[in-house]
Amino acid sequence: MADELHRLSEPVGSDIQAVTRASQILAMFRPDRPVLAVAEAAAELRLNRTTTHRYFNSLVAVGLLDRARDPSTFVPGPLLVQLGAFALGRRAVVDLAPAHLAALSRTTHLTSALTLWGAVGPVVTRVEEDTANPVIVSVRVGHQLPVDAAHTKVFLAFLPDQMQAERLLATLPDAERRRLAADIDRARATGMASVHLADLDITAVAAAVFDESGICAVIALIGTARILSAGEPGLAWHDLAAAAYLLSKELGGEHHYPHGFLAAATDPAPPPAPRPGDPDDRHRRRPTEPLR
Q1: CA–centroid distance for 79 within its chain
Q2: Which secondary structure element, helix H or strand E, spans residue 89, and what is its range?
């Protein structure tokens, strides 16, 4: 593929530049952009349309892209679909996580989500919602999370390539970088992180999932700030930690957790007293039981 792209690229270039350009084109596909036009790519890459169209034709020839109904637009090709399915299939966490997520949502009455690390950040791979709840806060499968998301903080704390984490932080303004670096340090010490979206009044709390090699995924709870606190660990935090630990144990990675995480997962704090006007006994329930 590199040779073909190189022949069609600018007169001055290299195979590495051609591969880089191809990866830039493929990275433009997102859940909110499943179809990509040549004109869009040319504008973002700052190339003329003729050169960009040649890149697209080369990617079609090797199966990385396919033509959409409009001949000037393209979609991911069969080779990408095959490789994506193969990559997900090799991750045992994708097969094991759904049962843990479903149990976690039933216990906490919150939405749970699984993310895997993508090209530049966490991508939502699985979501379980509490359908008994009349109000559901959720996230779309395939959504790539921003650098300040709770999932991202946990991933950046445990990525084996810490240079990648430093490169991502280097793109931020100084104040934001220092604030996020402090959150990542806390995630490294505790195995968990949280974020509160003030404009939406939504909280997400995330916990690391490890396999034998290290961090392989992150699971999280998502809900309104009234139910799920970002700053005061409560019973839902302990339920999340328990689910993450049990999943990691199935994957053979429980030894990667920082000191004290197991205690939080297996010995949760006592639940708070019921609040006046509570319609049910959610705050008096038992913590998550191990899956059998």
Answers
A1: 23
A2: helix 78-89
What is the rounded end-to-end Cα distance, in angstroms, of the chain? 48
227 vs 245: which has the higher pLDDT: 245
CATH 1.10.10.10 residue ranges for the chain: 2-85
Q: How far apart are CA 94 and CA 70, in angstroms?
A: 34
| Total-model pTM | 0.67
Task: Using pLDDT thresholds of 50, 70 and 90, give the confidence band for residue 264.
Answer: low
Non-local (6+) Cβ contacts of 46 within 8 A are none
For the cut 70, the answer to whether the pLDDT of residue 7 exceeds it is: no
Q: Tell me the CATH class for 2-85.
A: mainly alpha
Q: Which of 131, 149, 137, 108 is nearest to 241 (CA)?
A: 108
Lowest-confidence pick of 76-85, 115-124, 156-165: 76-85
> Which residues of the chain form CATH 3.30.450.40?
91-284
What lies within 8 Å, CB to CB, of 37 at 6+ separation is 70, 72, 73, 74
Q: pLDDT grade, residue 103 (50/70/90)?
A: very high
Q: For 258-278, b where at least 16 C-beta lie within 10 A, e where not — what string?
A: eeebbebbeebeebeeeeeee
CATH of domain 91-284: 3.30.450.40
pLDDT level of residue 13 (50, 70, 90 thresholds):
low
Q: Cα–Cα distance between 155 and 174 in angstroms, integer?
A: 21
